[in-house]
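Action item from last week, closing it out:
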Amino acid sequence: MALFEIDPIIRRLDDDRIRALNAGSITEADLMRLVRQDDPFAFVNGVLHYISPEEEKQQREGFVKSRIVQIKQTGDIDANYLYEHQDEFLSAYPEASGVYEEIRAIIEKDSCTGCAMRAHSRRMLDAVLALDPSGRDLSAITADVVFNQRFPHGLARLRRETITVDESKIQIPPFFARKRVPILPEGSENKTPLPPPAVEAPTEPRKHTDRKDVVELLLAIANAAHAEYHLVESMSYNQEKNLAPLTAALGDARRLRVDLMQKLADSNPNARSLWCTLKHLLLLQFHLMELHERAFDGKYLELSRRVSLLVDDLLSADLGGDFRDCPRCEDDRAQ
């Protein structure tokens, strides 16, 4: 059974990945991992959909229009920034203190402060922008160089001045500036398989399992470690509650993550030598992906990709045998 539907026109794209897929050299799961932000196709409701130049142009124009509306409505001020710099804003908008206190109480009770901040901080921004700016001393806000650099229209919006947006300076995400790939004629053979990898004569047992298995295993370890992190965070904000179920779940999640890491170490000794380093790099990659989801900034995806390459390099490096274990690695493996 196919993992997803594929727009027929994609099968005719002059692209090595598509030819390999048509020839059976790679699977649909492989293709999912190979899709880039600037490809002329994307997943839409379970379908790998071809995005034509006309559709991309329409999407880009719609994005620019929505950004202009957003900038004029909010000055492009990040609501989370208001929460993190509440002293400066409350000095100018003391009437908003009630909203700040209400949101702070919600965030402090939530098991995931980052999720709660993203969900509720917009209410604080709306409360501030709804207040009459007349006679307010905004010097505490404008004295912050970061505010002026990050939100060039922010002061004008706080003062309710007219905002003129230069469309040419609006940053366009990569998926609105896609690389165009030639489309081969209908009925043409587009099944050139990729050349088989060179096979070296085996001298020692293989260090690696199948590449796809390793990738899935690394993702599983990252998710298990992230679950540990959230359970610990939830326990720290709910110390007055019955934490026995969470404590048991934390132990299970940790043992699962250790088992997964041991499985990786069984096939790749480097994973044992770099046990804690590997765990924290995978958590770093996971958090960078969450930052991209929050900020919609391609730089976080690029950083995540760099971490992924670093992990791959470490797992592939010749370390000359096992490293001496650090006490924390020993304790973690003993769980």
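Closing note: The beta strands are 5-6, 41-44, 47-50.
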